[in-house]
# Entry
Amino acid sequence: MVEYQQALEGAGLRAFTRRQAGFSRKVCSDISAISTVAVVGISSLLASLLLGVYSEPSKYLSVGILGGILIAELYSHKGYYNFDRLLRPWAVLPGILSLWALALLILTCFAFLTDISQDFSRRWLVYWFVIGGAGVAISRFAMAYHFQGMCRVGGSLSRRVAVVGASTLAEKFISLSTEEDKSVQIMGVYDDRHGDPQRAGGLAISGSVDDLVDSAMHGGFDDIVICLPWSATDRINEIFRRLSVLPANTVVCPDMLWLENKHGGISHLGGVPLLNIHRRPLEGWGGILKAAEDRVVSSLLLAFLSPLMLLIALLIKLDSRGPVLFSQNRHGFQHDVFRIHKFRTMTVMENGADVRQATKGDMRVTRIGAFLRRYSLDELPQLWNVLKGDMSLVGPRPHAVAHNEQYAQVIADYAGRHRVKPGISGWAQVNGCRGETSENEMMEERVRHDLYYIENWSLFLDIRIILMTIWAVLFPKNAY
# Structure
């Protein structure tokens, strides 16, 4: 074969080894779900034994299995049994533990309503919560370790892929698929227009579609990906017909636009399958949780920090002439303009077409203002913006209208930041993208982090950012 096969043979592996498809990733997902039910059921029984309750073990085991089925359904609904997530236990650990707590809360409410709660002690419930949560987490890590081993090159869960089509789309697919999933092996690239092995662009052609069929019949691929322009329907249909005899998954690669948007997915509208480019942020319960988080936390912080804010206001008045608060027009959700409030830290109150960013050693910054800016205390009045609904605790930082219009002209996807409310702190800021943005590259990095946050929002990501913000405030960098 060509360089793909040679690379595999160099690792001591045969490129084509006949393999049964029985043990698949779907089977691993089902095994994981079954193990969850078993672990939760056994942990309920262990909790009773630790308490010295040896009578009626079937009662505790039955409740444990019921709880296991409930938590397995919750995990399945959230997609925690998707194989890719099974391989990344740390990424889903907060969600797993929170849903376990939710499952016990549901069971407790059910027991109270059916008047059977007196049959189970509170100590047993606490023991079950701790043992069950630890058991589920440990089982996830153990399975992840085992499945990762099976995904290595040549393993039973590695994906052996043949690509049809010598195109830039094929190059992009190969680059993305092997970068994201180390278990993907590109076994060869085949082209329906070439009969002999050769090179086309940056790809080595292994042969024609006939060669692909012959290789598949004698060895086997797990997946065959057709990377041709969607406009080439006649070629694609002919290739489908010729590949229909093969025991492999045959799929069409999306176009370049969808492929480059990694957060896209499949949705249905009126029963018609569609390819998503961008999903609506904070849809469903996400928006409700986010709003509750903002209102509750901002109210508590305002009540707790009001003495500090009064002290800061007094120091500003004693330090320099001018108002305590600085207000400026900024773009918020869907580009709506709102007035942001901050403690005044400079001798100017710029809010027009010409707004100059603060720089290191800026003479416009007052003495108390330098301290406030260093520890981000000047941002505290924005808690009122959060309470009013103009802002969120966490989200992309809003920029002055003049800066917003400037960057929107030169940075692609900049406007995508306004799909959610702006925040007091954000994913970009806790990753070091704060302060002056004197070059477009610095703002591009900030935008990249903001878009990542929007596409990957979760309540636990917000909590993580809030905790990282506290650290960034105590040990500031790039703040002046």
About this structure: The chain is about 50% helix and 10% strand. The first helix runs from residue 3 to 10. The two ends are 60 Å apart (CA to CA). Residues 310 and 320 are 16 Å apart (CA to CA).
